[in-house]
Amino acid sequence: METEPAESTGRRETEPAESTRGGVRGLIERFRKLFLYSAVSVVAVVVSQITLVICHALLGMSAEWSNIIAVAAGTIPSYELNRSWVWGKTSKSHLWKEVVPFWVLSFVGLVFSTVVVSLATDWWKDTTLVVQGANLAAFGILWVGKFLLLHYVLFKDHGAHAEHFG
User: What is the pTM of this model?
Assistant: First the structure.
């Protein structure tokens, strides 16, 4: 298969035919990040659910307080693993550009999940299983939106493509 000269395509000779953000490479990278994000979510859910069971079932705390403590406990590994493992950030965290927005996003999730947990325990019995189900349902709803915010806003890499492919 013949290729057109660089002049007729409007590209420089050293410029790749496919954008690194689009095409096959971009698609593979998005799926890789989505897979890693899912794995981090599993870790955060396990930490949150264990904490929730300890607080609610073993310590007898209210559903709402158990949820608050569980969400806070799951947010710590979620931030660290998302930042370093999923988005490959190795530099020092920036307080106002990364840490505070991530915790604000987590706080929104906390408020939403606490409302869902409270409503669920009002509608059904206040059992640990109901609290766990409500917590999981709330964060399941928020999961996709959080990925999009992390990917396109919070941990967006402005210069990686130039470094690795330029």
Answer: 0.68
